[in-house]
Design a protein that fits this description.
about 110 residues; two-stranded antiparallel sheet; 6 helices; 4 strands; four-way junction DNA binding
């Protein structure tokens, strides 16, 4: 399979996961690709973590999906994501959300 065929296959057979931000979904051609790792980069304090937590909340709640959050700095804050979920979806959704959310830090992976 060549590169063009791989791209064509990916476009036909992969679902898009909406980020919850229409403008970003448009830029990405429909959202994030299901089954692919997406790296978010930018300067310090530019909103990368906030965006990732928002997208994770959106996917877990609206699509009833499971989310894996890879935390490379061991700084995941359940309180912060609970606040985001509460603000966007309300307090009743928090328990359902946390049942679908898995976070892995490099320490967890290294010692697993």
């Amino acid at each position: 399979m060549n590169g063009v065929e791989l791209l064509d296959d990916a476009l036909r057979n992969k679902r898009f996961l909406p980020t919850g931000c229409d403008g970003i979904d448009t830029l990405l051609g429909g959202g994030l690709r299901e089954g692919q790792l997406t790296e978010i980069v930018g300067p310090s304090s530019s909103g990368k973590t906030q965006f990732c937590l928002y997208v994770a909340s959106n996917v877990a709640v609206k699509l009833c999906g499971s989310v894996v959050f890879l935390d490379t700095s061991n700084s995941f804050s359940p309180t912060r994501i609970a606040s985001i979920v509460n603000q966007i979806f309300g307090p009743a959704v928090k328990e359902v959300f946390f049942n679908a959310f898995l976070t892995l830090s490099l320490l967890n992976i290294a010692f697993a």
